[in-house]
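Hi there. Long-time user, first ticket. I'm pasting a complex I've been working with (about 1025 residues overall). I'd like to know whether the download I got is complete or cut off, because the file seemed smaller than I expected. Thanks.
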Amino acid sequence: MKRSMTLAWAHRQAWSMRYRLLGVAVILGIAFGIFVGVYSAIASLYQTRDHYYDLLNVDDLELRFIPTDQSNVPNFTDIAGVSEAESRLVSPGQITLADGSRHATAVVGEDLKHRTDINRLQVLSGAPLSRDKPDAVLVDRNFARYHHVKPGDRFSLAMGNAKYSLTVAGIALSPEHLIAPANPNFFVPVKGSVGVVFAPLKLISDRMNFPLVDSEVLTFSKGADPHTVENEVRKRASTRLDVQSSTLLPHQFSYLFMKVDLGAFQLFVPAVIVVFLLATVTVGLFLIARWIAAQKQTLGVFMALGFHRRRLIAAQLYPALLIALAAIVVGIPVAYLVLADFGRSYSNALGFPKPFTHLDPLHLGMGIAGVLAIVALICLWPLSAILRLTPQDAVRGDSPQSGGRAGGVVMRALGVLRRWPTVFYPLRSLARVPGVAATTLISVGLALGVSLSYLVATDSFNHTIAQNFNLDRWNVAVGFLVPLWEDELGPYRKISGVNQLEGYLRGAMRAEHAGTQQPALVTGVPPGRSMHHITITDGRGLKERDKNVILLEHKLAHQLNAKPGDTLGLESQGHRYSATVIGIFSGTIPGAAYAPLASVQHWLRMDGQVTGVLVKTHGHAASVAKALRAAPRVGSVTLKNQLSAKVQEISSEASSIIYVATAFSIAVTLIILLASTSFTVLGRRHEYGVLRTLGFRNRAVGRILMTEVTLVGVFGLLLSTLFAYGMATFLIGRLSQAWFEVIPSFTWWNFALIGVPALVLFPIAALPSLRAVLRTRLSLMLRDRRIG
Amino acid sequence: MSAQGKVIEATGLASAIRIEALNKSYPGPEGPQPVLRDLSLDVAQGESVAILGVSGTGKSTLLNIIGGIDAPDSGSVCVDGDDIGSFNSNRLADYRARKVGFIFQFYNLIAALTAFENVLTALQANGSTSAADERRCIDMLHAVGLTEKQDKFPSQLSGGEQQRVAIARALVKDSAIVLADEPTGNLDPHTAETVMELLVNVTRAAGASLVMVTHDPHMRTFVDRIYALRDGRLERG
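Hi, the file is complete. Here it is re-exported in full:
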């Protein structure tokens, strides 16, 4: 009998507060949905990647060497751990499409005679490669989609000094290029600007009279240690080949970019969730605590009647369970929304195949467990405080004069405003229960602060990208098809619109420090006067006369455990060098390093040569770019503003999560305002009834109520700037760790974007409570009696 | 003397309150439950009237209707010559602000305000107040014997003291009528008697009419006339 009575009472209580409790459930559900959605999206993307890797048998290792006759390539299949091996040619080129547009390309010459299963091409439309048709090629799907290339189209290809007239046999998906190929100058997938053409090796060997290869791809046996096998392969290769680099699968562009980018999300998203959860738990605790406090006297009566505390806790767990269930029901569609949106927009931005999206069971389980834990915490904590009281103390209810001496001083000080009831009454009501008022302000401040901190973090991120590009003094970056001598750059300097031209040399090396080896992409630039800006975060930048020194990108430095002052070992083509680390920089390219041009030329044994130039233009950069594309031996031409836009587009994936979280946090703010005004106003409905009885018109009562809500909103908004500062600093720190050094940027615009709608929302949030106060029959409002 | 439910002749003074053929019912599980049936009442200016009845007879309903807090199903209520049945919500609010003083069983003071501020609130219905208004409040608190307690909050006052604040609040605005709903229902007998004496004296001194509802028959000694409310009708007691 007792059990069913407490349960019936708890059920009735929960039903009477259903909208407010639903508000708590919605807030929790949103946090749950974002958590599960984002992590499921990340898991889905990885699973999709792995699916295609398995399906198309991606290589585990690629060896690059100086081009040679295929017959010179040693056999690798007898090395322990090697499953298959295949030689091929990978060469830069330039495509000219039928519309006259020119695009950089990477040509992959496939040896169809000795074709293995490695890096199998999935032909999406058209026909596969054929030995009988050496000039019929396959084009990668991203390039084809972006430039509307279809089977049967014809185009010309420039490779080295040779030109080819080719036909598109089909469009293909390659496991090496699951995302759009990178701009060779920057670690950024750029849809459509770099194409990949798969051609029969015969196409090139026919002109050379021998099969020329410069790449060997290998797959490993299950269980083989990749580094051990790699070392053996390199050893074998170096007996007959001039090895330039070896790249294990985890360091290949597609894999690496996704790992770095999604890894960055995995580093950043918890920060977003933590900030969101902080507001959610605080607000949930506040709302539930007020709900339970409203039942304090009833709980005291039950205790006085002899109901055991255990039964009261159990009865209260029933609405807690309902809140949790409602949160999960709300959260699952939110999770699907976030999953679909993030998964789709990420894959669109990167040219990734459509991912198989599904909610990840692990994170779904974690989310559900989290919801249950949070609900248990926010329900049981305030309840336990009440149940620790004696029945009499619980029945007595709230002490009206809380806040101690300070509260009393404030209460009395406010008396100077007593002639103006519109302002006096709300301020007094807030000061009367300072704990509740403070918690309300903190909740509003946190909710708004979360939104504000997200906006500040996103703006800082985008602002840093723009600023970094602005600090670069070049407008156009050019990559050559083949390395050029520095004294061959004259004709390029003479192109109309070229103001300044600076050569750079980029090549792959292996860096070693403290027993750790990592691949590094080293770029040599003129020290102390390069047009490329490098954001130094530790140590110093390059100075004129620097020699055998190196700057490391912060993630590479972390992997090598290297800091300014350390000596780094460098290996290229079997030769070893050393360089002193003079600085750490913040950059987007993993494994990037900068050194004086002369030093890099020496290390790569390319003295006097450059692989590209940075160009400063006067006039229209686009027309200069066009002229450069038409120049001989030019492979890729990149405009700085297009690259900046591309980086921002990709970074918008980070922003999209933030914008989703911001939108939800604003919704959370509205729910908090609705719920807290509801508790505050409806909890004092009786007092508003007294005012109406005394002759206060509806408008006067409305003004008092709106003033109180607006005061809470305004103070909460001011408080939010403090919270936002702290949370934004935390988020920016994580962004810097995940991607690159982000410069905090707090602007009035961010504040206005949150503050102005919030100031509009506050009075709107009070409307339901106001309607309830004004429409309830006065006689009913005055009947509200206290127990005892 | 009149028959049951008929208007009682006035004492010759002008009517402060004139109620004619008042009907009020509330929804019940078996249809509308009448609470007041064809009720009529006439209260002269300065007169004090007590209405006795057990719980649930409709005493508070009658008071609420006179005070403009509730509306009858039919009938008329004229206070100071105005038929309040024709008033919209704003006019009713003004009516309560200017002409009616309420005193409740559970005081209905605003917890966040001191005794003085609770009294002052009664003058703020139409906007801000002045120094003169504040002086009136102090005078009224003095009249009810609470000068030293004017800065106390309701939680710091005894039940009797809270009711005295409520009396001061009801009378500070020169109300034409004072409506008291079980004003001593929550007080011990000794305090109840003290409060009643105060209520009647202060009301009389202000020239206001007092209508009080109570279940305590001892209250008859404090008022000019007494009625019993039975079956929704008034019977002279």
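A couple of notes from our side: The interface with chain B takes residues 399-401, 411-412, 415, 418-421, 425, 428-429, 431-432, 686-687, 690-698, 700, 777-779, 782, 785-786 of chain A (CB under 8 Å). Residues 123 and 172 of chain A are 4 Å apart (CA to CA).
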